[in-house]
Amino acid sequence: MLDNLTDVPLLTVATVASVLVLLYLVRINQLLLGTPDEIKRLTPTRWTKDLLRETYRRLEADPITTSSYAKRIPPKLERRYIVTGGSGLVGGYIVLQLLERGQPPESVRIVDFRPPSRADMLYGSVAEVDFVQTDISSAEATEKAFRKPWPSSVAHLPLTVFHTAAVIVPSDRSRLVSGFCEAVNVRGTQNVVDAAQRAGADVLVSTTSASISIRPVELWVPPWRMWLGQRPRHFWQVLDEKDFFEPLRRHEEFYANYPASKAAAERIVCGANSERLRTGCIRPANGVYGNPTDNTVGGALSKAVLPTWTSHIVQSFVHGMNVAISHLDFEAILASPSSSSSPQAGRPFVITDPNPPISYRDLYFLVQTLALTPFRALPLQPVIMVLLSYPIEWYSLALARFPVLRRILPELSGEVKHLKPGLFSICTHLVASNAVAGQPVSSGGLGYTGVLTTLEGMAQEVVEWNNDHKGVAGARKAYQTSVSLADEIAKAAATVQSVAGS
C-alpha cells in the first residue's frame, strides 16, 4: 500500500516534467520558425507569378551570358592565368570571363581535381583551355601543375593565380573529423601560395567564404529568457569582413570545420601579400548559385519533394558570375606593382548579388512556378530536426573515434550524414553586405557592381534546367554538386590512405 502511494507523486512529477519539456520544445520551435522584424524590413515584397514568368520569358529569349555583359568585365591584361578549381562554379565563370575579354585559350590553365563537365565549358574556345588534374592537398602535385611549361607565345607573360579550389563539408564541427577540410582548404591553400611564388606569380586572388563571419547559433534559449520573447542568439547575422581585422577566433567559435578552415586559408593568402606577390580574398555570400550543379537552386530542382524547415529563412545569395567578376575587379587593382601597400591588398571583400536578400520561400516558389519538372516543399518542424541531428552527430563521431566499429556498423550516406547541429547555423537569417567592395577604387573598394540580380540569376538557372529536361518526362538529370564532390574526394582520399596503410 505504501509503495503505491509513493508511486503516485513520482508519476505526477514525471508527468509535470514531461509537459514542461514539451512546452519548452514547442516554444523553441515557434522561435525557430520566426522572422525578426529587422529582417522583415529588408524583404518587404515577395516574388509573384507574373514577375517570375515575365523574367523567365525575357531570359529565355535573351539569356545573360559573358558576351551580354562584356563591357562590365575589366579590360584584358597581357598576362597568363592559373585557375585552381577552374572546373567548378566560380572558377568556371572566371575562365569564361577571361576568354570573353580576349585572353587566348593558351594563356589560361585549369588546375582541378576533375575536368570541366558544365555544359557551358564543353564547346568553343573554353574547350581549348589546358586542364591539369591535380590534388592540391599534395604539395608535389600542386608544384608539378604550376611548373608545367607554357606555350612559347605566352610563357614570358606575368602570372595571375585565381585560387577557387576547396571542399565544402557543411556541418561537421568536431576537430576529430576536421582533417579533410584542413588538408584541402588549409594545407592546399598553402601549397598553392608556395607554388605560385616559386612559379613567379605576382597576383593571387583567392575565393574564401562569407560563412567565415558566421557565429554558431545558440539554439537552446534558457527558459527565463525564452518567455521574455528572446530568440536564440545569432539567429540573424550580418556577414561582413570585420572579423578579419580581429584576432582569429578559436575553432569552437566557428559553426563548423569548413568556415574554420576557410578562415585559416584566408589568413595564409592575405598574410602572403608583398610587393613580389600581391594578394587578396573574395568572400561570396552564403549560398553561391548559378548552374544546375549548385547546392542552392540545383539542389531544389533535383527533387520532386524537398523536405525543408527553412522556407521562412531570409538570406543573401550570390551568382557565380558576380563572384567571378569581383575576382577580375580585384586583379585589375593588384596588377599594379605598387598595389601591395594599397588599402585593397592583403584583405578580404564580401560579395553578394546587387539586391536585397530573399527568403527560401521565394526560391521554392520560383522552382514550383517555372520548372518543367514537378516540385513542392514539404514543411518540417525545425526542433524535431535539431533533436535528430544530435544522435546523427554522435553516431558519426563514434565511428571516427573507434574505427573498429566500422566493421559492424554502416557509415551514414546521402543527405542524412549532413544533418548535424552545425548545419543549423547556416539555416538562420544571414544578410550579407558588400558595401565595402562596392566603394570606388579610390576609396579603398573594388568598384564592384553585380551583373545580374538574384531573381534573374535563379530564373535563368531554371531556363537552363528546363532546356536540359524538355521531352524527358518525369526524369531528372544527375548533376554533381560541390557537396557531393567533396564526398567523392573524401572517399578517394580514404581509399588512398587505406592502400598506403595496408
Automatic annotation (TrEMBL):
<keyword id="KW-0560">Oxidoreductase</keyword>
<feature type="transmembrane region" description="Helical">
    <location>
        <begin position="6"/>
        <end position="26"/>
    </location>
</feature>
<dbReference type="InterPro" id="IPR036291">
    <property type="entry name" value="NAD(P)-bd_dom_sf"/>
</dbReference>
<protein>
    <recommendedName>
        <fullName>3-beta hydroxysteroid dehydrogenase/isomerase domain-containing protein</fullName>
    </recommendedName>
</protein>
<keyword id="KW-1133">Transmembrane helix</keyword>
<dbReference type="GO" id="GO:0016616">
    <property type="term" value="F:oxidoreductase activity, acting on the CH-OH group of donors, NAD or NADP as acceptor"/>
</dbReference>
<dbReference type="InterPro" id="IPR002225">
    <property type="entry name" value="3Beta_OHSteriod_DH/Estase"/>
</dbReference>
<dbReference type="GO" id="GO:0006694">
    <property type="term" value="P:steroid biosynthetic process"/>
</dbReference>
<keyword id="KW-0812">Transmembrane</keyword>
<feature type="domain" description="3-beta hydroxysteroid dehydrogenase/isomerase">
    <location>
        <begin position="246"/>
        <end position="366"/>
    </location>
</feature>
<comment type="similarity">
    <text>Belongs to the 3-beta-HSD family.</text>
</comment>
<dbReference type="Pfam" id="PF01073">
    <property type="entry name" value="3Beta_HSD"/>
</dbReference>
<keyword id="KW-0472">Membrane</keyword>
<dbReference type="InterPro" id="IPR050177">
    <property type="entry name" value="Lipid_A_modif_metabolic_enz"/>
</dbReference>
<feature type="domain" description="3-beta hydroxysteroid dehydrogenase/isomerase">
    <location>
        <begin position="82"/>
        <end position="212"/>
    </location>
</feature>
